[in-house]
UniProtKB/TrEMBL annotation:
SUPFAM superfamilies: beta-lactamase/transpeptidase-like. Belongs to the peptidase S13 family. It comes from Sphaerisporangium album. This is D-alanyl-D-alanine carboxypeptidase/D-alanyl-D-alanine-endopeptidase. The gene is dacB. Its EC number is 3.4.16.4. One of its GO terms (biological process) is peptidoglycan metabolic process.
Length: 520
């Protein structure tokens, strides 16, 4: 395996030499790689000799962002499952197709006539996928309805989620992930429990009771009657709590013992019903009664607007989306892109648009089955991904998108994001802007770094099928730090030996932001 890696590296060095020869008009000296490049190749070979990668696949490509020159390549053209590196493609396609100023709208409309304080007809809640709607926002919409003088709706409350289709989950998503917020259902009407905007989920809090052995206290954020709680948890000397949702239902089961407050982010079944329940409760709070039931339907074209809300623009949403690797934002944006491009709020339409954008910007071999990377059927090649990253630098929106990427070693949660605890105190800190990616036996880091010479570089590191350890610190971080120290004309004296084994107990099978509360 080591020999195979060396052959690939020598081939890439030969290709580099040919490039240099062509660029300079030939000559033996012109064809020789610079000493710093030779040194880089040797060090990256050493990093990729990590024993736990012996049974795995690792694709690594490094290029100059300014010229496209390839400095290192291993399996550049082979496809890998990218996990959340998929978001590099879908976020860029969404920005290009929707625009940085794109906003989601949520509207309350009526189809009836007013008779004093009564609305004789139905009240419609129409969404377009806004993932930033909190319970407080539904409350504000209800307050606007009340401010018009309406106190009674004689008809139904109609939840209109038809801006998107009714396919709620990705084709290849794992069933055992369904209770958890990072695999929540997608709808044009949804709600979030927090300002991470974890659309389609609630926070379940479990607190100790009055005495040892007493029943634990369970509450939800936001409070909602959309779910039912089955509480078997008790107060104990230690916290060992399990919170899950029974498949296909909104029955949340809590078991175990609790000594201090514990929280779990749980995806709801039917986010449309969840959003409608919050709005209906808010209407009641503001003195607006609805006689009819809550149903689903399509808003008639003749309906009159009563109240509305616009989300933050996409340029701002990119920050929680990319910094925290929010899966639901990715999927909602894919469906919004499909709606914009072809009039169909579907995965098929949105992914077709995202794929076309990727192919137009350097990626001939790409398969997108979702927008987030939860699917293990997604496939990209690291060489093409670096070409894509270079192509994006010419886009008018590039700087805004680039700043939304996680930044290594920056402890601020909405700056460092999923890289905030990685590469701190190294030349890569506040330098590397890159997207992380994690599934069991899948890891990736792809993005941008500036070398010690001030040269902009792009890189993609994708690892699949490793059975133990984690490539994050031993491979991804080691390569990124090495690139930050790279000098073309000078070999780097590695003051710290390159690591070839994970730290004891290191297990990063998920994006760190997926483990709430996110402290990593």
């Amino acid at each position: 395996m080591r020999r195979h890696r060396k052959v690939i590296t020598l081939l890439s060095a030969a290709a580099l030499a040919a490039t240099l020869t062509q660029a300079t008009g030939g000559g033996a000296n012109a064809a020789d790689p610079a000493p710093g490049v030779t040194d880089l190749v040797q060090d990256l070979d050493q990093i990729l000799s990590a024993p736990f990668l012996g049974v795995a696949r690792a694709g690594v490509v490094v290029r100059s962002a300014a010229t496209g020159e390839q400095l290192y390549a291993q399996d550049a053209g082979k496809v890998f499952a990218p996990a959340s590196n998929t978001k590099l493609l879908t976020s860029a396609a969404a920005v290009d197709g929707l625009g940085l100023d794109y906003r989601f709208t949520t509207t309350v409309l009526s189809s009836g006539r007013r008779a004093g304080s009564a609305l004789a007809g139905d009240l419609y809640l129409k969404g377009t996928g806004d993932p930033t709607l909190l319970a407080a926002d539904y409350d504000a919409l209800a307050a606007k309805v009340a401010a018009t003088g309406v106190k009674l709706v004689t008809g139904k409350l109609v939840a209109d989620d038809t801006w998107f289709d009714d396919v709620r989950l990705g084709t290849d998503w794992a069933q055992d992930d369904e209770p958890y917020y990072y695999s929540a259902q997608i709808s044009a009407l949804t709600a979030s429990p927090d300002t991470d905007y974890d659309a389609g989920s609630i926070i379940v809090s479990v607190a100790p009771g009055s005495a040892q052995g007493s029943t634990a206290k369970v509450s939800t954020t936001p409070p909602t009657d959309h779910v039912t709680i089955e509480n078997h948890a008790t107060t104990g000397a230690a916290t060992d709590v399990t919170v899950t949702r029974v498949h296909g239902t909104n029955r949340i089961v809590v078991t175990g013992t609790v000594a201090s407050t514990y929280q779990e982010w749980i995806a709801v079944d039917d986010p449309t019903g969840y959003a409608a329940s919050l709005f209906r409760a808010a209407l009641a709070k503001h003195g607006v009664g609805v006689l009819g039931k809550t149903v689903r339907g399509t808003t008639p074209g003749t309906a009159a607007s009563v109240a509305g809300r616009e989300s933050m623009p996409l340029r701002e949403l990119l920050v929680p989306f990319m910094k925290l690797s929010n899966n639901m934002h990715a999927e909602i944006l894919v469906k919004a892109l499909g709606r914009k491009v072809s009039g169909q709020g579907t995965w098929d339409a949105g992914l077709a648009a995202a794929t076309a954008f990727a192919k137009a910007n350097g990626m001939a071999n790409v398969r997108l089955r979702d927008g987030s990377g939860l699917s293990r059927v997604d496939a990209v090649a690291p060489g093409e991904l670096t070409a894509f990253l270079i192509a994006l630098r010419a886009k008018p929106w590039y700087q805004t998108w680039y700043q939304a990427l996680p930044i290594a070693g920056n402890s601020d949660r909405f700056t460092g994001g999923t890289l905030r605890s990685r590469m701190a105190g190294t030349p890569a800190a506040n330098n590397v802007h890159a997207k992380t990616g994690s599934l069991t036996s899948v890891s990736g880091l792809s993005g941008y770094v500036t070398s010690a010479d001030g040269e902009p570089l792009v890189f993609s590191i994708l690892s699949n099928q490793y059975l133990s350890g984690s490539p994050k610190s031993t491979v991804e971080d080691a390569i990124a730090v090495r690139l930050a120290r790279f000098k073309r004309d000078t070999p780097v004296n590695m003051a710290v030996p390159l690591r070839t084994a994970p730290d004891a107990g290191e297990d990063l099978g998920l994006e760190c932001s997926w483990v709430k509360p996110a402290q990593c």
